[in-house]
């Protein structure tokens, strides 16, 4: 089974609107970390936000928030007030286990912000 | 340096030649990862180093691929007898590693800008 599943290959959003990018994960380990990265056309992977499995509250970083639903094993990224510069590929990733160092990445979602 | 540094940024080579890609991790990061990303695809794990432990080579696609890391510093990914299917962006990332284990350890991976390899 896939460790990380991103079911939206491409998404469009109007500038200034909010958008949700879906991510589900699969693990039986009670300790794990979830990450979102942005990859603009320049190619560099930019860390956006982190959610730990023990965190009680949803993570937020500026316009980014993570809708963490542990029972459903989902970790959706919400981008509020979309900007043209948000157009990029977005990858969800998981680090499995308390001492885990291997990361699993999803296949990515391409987001296009429409002016 | 402040971030993960990779060199060269672009490499064009002829089929059959060997190439070396370099990664300079963030100072103090004990874990280092190599990934391959083909055009329009996700990240494919290649290899990871944790301190002085034996590396996890489970992602290397063939014996033409190898990587070395001296201690907790620079790593080199070598591809021998390159093939056209090796054309991709090779990304390196580093993270604080096991030294920060525990439920509060984020262990975030920080990526370099990548090396774009083109095999003609």
Set out the fold topology.
The complex is a heterodimer of chains A (115) and B (120).
Chain A: E1 4-5, E2 10-14, E3 19-21, E4 24-25, E5 32-39, E6 46-52, E7 60-61, E8 64-69, E9 74-79, E10 88-96, E11 103-105, E12 109-114
Parallel strand pairs in A: 2-12
Antiparallel strand pairs in A: 1-4, 3-9, 5-6, 5-10, 7-8, 8-9, 10-11, 10-12
Chain B: E1 5-7, E2 10-13, E3 19-24, E4 31-37, E5 44-50, E6 65-69, E7 75-79, E8 88-95, E9 110-111, E10 115-119
Parallel strand pairs in B: 2-10
Antiparallel strand pairs in B: 1-3, 3-7, 4-5, 4-8, 6-7, 8-9, 8-10
Give the C-alpha Rg of chain B: 14 Å
Which sequence of SSEs, written as H and E, runs from N to C of chain B? EEEEEEEEEE
The proportion of strand residues of chain A reads over 45%
> Between the first and last Cα atoms of chain A, what is the distance in angstroms?
38 Å
Mean pLDDT of chain B: 89
Q: Low-confidence parts of chain A, pLDDT < 50 over ≥5 residues?
A: none
Let me know the largest β-sheet of chain A: 6 strands, mixed
User: Strand-and-helix sequence of chain A, N→C?
Assistant: EEEEEEEEEEEE
Which key terms come to mind for this protein?
heterodimer; A: 115 residues; six-stranded mixed β-sheet; four-stranded antiparallel β-sheet; 0% helix; globular; B: mainly beta
Q: Could you walk me through the main structural features you see in this protein, from its secondary elements to its overall organization?
A:
- The complex is a heterodimer of chains A (115) and B (120).
- With 115 residues, chain A is mainly β.
- Helix content of chain A is 0%, strand content 51%.
- Chain A has strands at 4-5, 10-14, 19-21, 24-25, 32-39, 46-52, 60-61, 64-69, 74-79, 88-96, 103-105, 109-114.
- In chain A, strands 2, 5, 6, 10, 11 and 12 form a 6-stranded mixed β-sheet that branches.
- The mean pLDDT of chain A is 93.
- Chain B is an all-beta fold and 120 residues long.
- Chain B is 0% helix and 43% strand.
- Chain B has no helices and 10 strands.
- Chain B is globular.
- The termini of chain B are far apart.
- Chains A and B meet through strand 5, strand 6, strand 10 and strand 11 of A and strand 4, strand 5, strand 8 and strand 9 of B.
């Amino acid at each position: 089974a896939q460790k990380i599943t991103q079911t939206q290959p491409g998404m469009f959003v109007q500038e200034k609107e909010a958008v949700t990018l879906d991510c589900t994960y699969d693990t039986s380990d009670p300790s794990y970390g979830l990450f979102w990265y942005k990859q603009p056309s320049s190619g560099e992977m930019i860390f956006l936000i982190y959610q730990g499995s023990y965190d009680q509250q949803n993570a937020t970083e500026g316009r980014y928030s993570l809708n963490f639903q542990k029972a459903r094993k989902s970790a959706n990224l919400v981008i509020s007030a979309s900007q043209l510069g948000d157009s990029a590929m977005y990858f969800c990733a998981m680090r499995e286990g308390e001492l885990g160092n291997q990361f699993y990445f999803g296949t990515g979602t391409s987001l296009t912000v429409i002016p | 340096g402040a971030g993960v540094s990779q060199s060269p940024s672009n490499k064009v080579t002829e089929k059959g030649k060997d190439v070396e890609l370099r990664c300079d991790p963030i100072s103090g990061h004990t874990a280092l990862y190599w990934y391959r990303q083909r055009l329009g695809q996700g990240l494919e794990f290649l290899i990871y180093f944790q301190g002085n432990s034996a590396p996890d080579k489970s992602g290397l696609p063939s014996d033409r691929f190898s990587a070395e890391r001296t201690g907790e510093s620079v790593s080199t990914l070598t591809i021998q007898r390159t093939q056209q299917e090796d054309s991709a962006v090779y990304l390196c990332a580093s993270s604080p590693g096991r030294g920060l284990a525990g439920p509060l350890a984020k262990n975030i991976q920080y990526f370099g800008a990548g090396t774009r390899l083109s095999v003609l």
